[in-house]
What does this fold into?
Amino acid sequence: MSLLVVGSVAFDSVETPVDKIDKALGGSATFCSVASSYFSDDVKMSGGVGEDFGEQNIEMLKNHKIDISGLDIVEGEKTFSYGCVYRDDMNVRDTLFTDLNVFEKFDPIIPEDMRGIPYVLLGNIMPSLQLKVLDQMTNLKFSVCDTMNLWINITREDLLKVIKRVNLLVINDSEAKMLADEGNLIKAAKKVMAMGPEYLIIKKGEHGAFLFGEGQIFSAPAFPLETVFDPTGAGDSFAGGFTGHLINASEINFETMKKAVIYGSTLASFCVEKFSTKGIENLSKETIEGRFKEFINLSRVD
Amino acid sequence: MSLLVVGSVAFDSVETPVDKIDKALGGSATFCSVASSYFSDDVKMSGGVGEDFGEQNIEMLKNHKIDISGLDIVEGEKTFSYGCVYRDDMNVRDTLFTDLNVFEKFDPIIPEDMRGIPYVLLGNIMPSLQLKVLDQMTNLKFSVCDTMNLWINITREDLLKVIKRVNLLVINDSEAKMLADEGNLIKAAKKVMAMGPEYLIIKKGEHGAFLFGEGQIFSAPAFPLETVFDPTGAGDSFAGGFTGHLINASEINFETMKKAVIYGSTLASFCVEKFSTKGIENLSKETIEGRFKEFINLSRVD
It folds into this structure.
């Protein structure tokens, strides 16, 4: 199935208690596209980068059979750059700098031939841009949207419009509580569901994820990792793996979505094991299936 | 199967953001015994109370067919009293007062006819007392031990001796990290396992529980509750439900322990719905089985 991924493409400079890396490939569209490419051979990525983006990064995306004809390489511009440092427990991230560069004028014009794609994954970008993407799509069957605390704080109205229109929203636990203004996560989930989406996924980091929909709840575990090398991109990898698996399932319902949550968690667990996209760049079907099975066994009671 | 439960018996004065209660029945032995009584018709409770304990509390324990011949009612003494207040998120508890009373001189002398009991649940009390109980048992087949951060801090050496001798240790996530002096929970679990116990359960509150043993990990979800009325006794109810189910299973191994973890979680989820032991006092087999099945379905992927 064809999947259109729209989001940011960035250079990330990341420092963790373990190590640091400078100007490594990142951005929501990047992680989402690479993660979903393991499940779909027709992933189309839309976004904008500067002329400094580099042949190596283009090659990596092409190696994953990602269609980057919707990726604008803007001459005279630089790629969006982001710098952050993770503190000891890896749960707190301090932003060091945000150079929007080409991203400042990013206008998500979806190429004509991609507007009829039935499946869209809206990676984390400004909600007004996500809305603009939705407006252009002519044949949407299922849409997934990721977002972040920043947009809940500064562009809440736009975000609410997006949430009303998408089929599934992916957020983390603190974002869900913030969005619903409710301290109990289950109550917060109900409030967010009332805002419009048919399905809701709440990511809880090292504590797994909740899926809500069809009057049901599914609780997925997290993979018990001894080392989290770099959490950057884990949420995007989750969204990519989830959506990639889901749209290629026999049908889209709560049951197939449960497996998709585990596949999303699988990709996220590989992501955090290395810097940048390195953890999800060279996976085999066997490696993914192996960890998927470990995930299933982790919570299985016979 | 016969189960000996040793621990504290107390009057708890608890204040939560929702409500408050004064001098209600509590204590580790109480919650453990009541919870395990749903799985075993031969639970023997050992502990000490003052002459103020009250007929009503004795009746409640007897109604659960708990043998309280090992419960000393000491004349001229008062029952151990504890007061605390829970803050907004129910994860932080501030102690208001601790009146040890009869508990100050508590010496766990196990009656002769109970020393041959093969299964022991050591509820949370001072580790030196837990050791004294273990020393008296003549035919131990499986022992479970619960503890708390206080003992890790002030009587670490005694606690390590207990941990070395019991088959299974139940602690929460912050205690595991404190005991192992390790920030990553999975690494901490390995370090604690190296201290002696065959099996380890790490309770994570609203995030469920991990079971470690036989080179395996099991991740159990928590029940998605919209209201936590009073968390007091949840951990003890978990330990009681877990141990009660386990010792009555066909055999004791990792597989039967997984189900026992879910039964423990089931009892804990009922416990937090009301003050004191009220949430676990009047359960039917059907109510317990119903929630057990809900728990299983919560993480089931077919």
The longest helix of chain A spans residues 254-271.
